[in-house]
């Protein structure tokens, strides 16, 4: 039966359905991600090899400078693996958040020429950061295997949950600050401060017990509600804990606070999407 033209559902040109459009245009998203990856390694002789060399060099620096010279191995067993596991997940957050904030400005020429779901750019920034994080995870796991890493299914699940929390959080914040950054470039400088503080606002360079012993209980609860704190501890639980370090204890209420972190990340994603859709009508004009 032939459909009458009057029965067709008309849509306003350029009208966005938010993240749903990104999912419906996965091929375009794939092209943008591939372009960003190719740009990153353009003109490089060793290419992807650098993604494995950098975390390996980091491990050697942490092991010698911090573990041996500063004797931090005496306070935290396998300190170099502990710090590298935490830095890996925080680096994923920092790269996805920072690049997501700049993504609209960096792609101004494309945004002004054609219409496509603008959420595509912060989402692609998160995916590129995730792809760049995979070699770091591979390196830290390979090093942990040398020291006897033997995780359980629950500990592997903890790693995946930590990645999910950070992916949602970074995407939401990238859309929120990316939309604001189009009009007010001060947002980018503010993000740089957040990124600088992120590594210290979660138990990466130190153990959570040091915080618990120095702050009141209510402040320690707020500290654990920071989504990065349970995300980092999930990575410690998945990579560092299987090594059976002496005196290691999970973050109190880790799974409960991981649930809160996931909920907070989803809410921030929803907020980022709402602000993004509110402001995207001015993107082409302000860019």
From TrEMBL:
Record field: transmembrane: 45-72, 78-97, 127-150, 156-178, 190-208, 254-276
Localization: Cell inner membrane; Cell membrane
Source organism superkingdom: Bacteria
Name of a matching Pfam family: ABC2_membrane
Keywords: Antibiotic resistance, Cell inner membrane, Cell membrane, Membrane, Transmembrane, Transmembrane helix, Transport
PROSITE patterns, per database record: ABC_TM2
Membrane topology reported for the UniProt record: Multi-pass membrane protein
InterPro entries per UniProt: ABC2_TM, ABC2_TM_bact-type, ABC_2_transport
ABC transmembrane type-2 domain mapped to chain residues: 46-279
Family: Belongs to the ABC-2 integral membrane protein family.
Name under which the protein is recorded: Transport permease protein
Organism: Microbacterium flavum
Phylogenetic lineage: Bacteria, Bacillati, Actinomycetota, Actinomycetes, Micrococcales
